[in-house]
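Figure 2 data, in text form.
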Amino acid sequence: MQLLTKVFIPLVLVCTFTAAHSKIGNCTPLVENGVEYSSHSNYVQATEIQTGKLIWQTELFKEKFIGEYNPKLEEDVQWNIVCVRTIVGDEILVTDGKHREFKVNKKSGVVSTSEIPNNRK
């Protein structure tokens, strides 16, 4: 029983901590031809996997929060977080918490278009 407690309790704590903290901005990086495309906060970046060298980093927008900041709510539930979604040709499709879609050139990091789809508000 003591062995079970020593193994089980830490495992439960690790799983609980991971689940609670993975909900915010939990975007799986995209990988293509040795380059990892990832997002964090309002940035998208490309990193060479073999060397870890940052190829480019692009800030999509300056606003940190979705809507107006509410001091009664925790900050992390109000953050406007971007997420890399897929690669189509030479572009990375990225979305944010306001349902905006961005197309970012995967070689240069330049944002080519930004739009709000008609079916979302």
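Caption note: The chain has one helix and eight strands.
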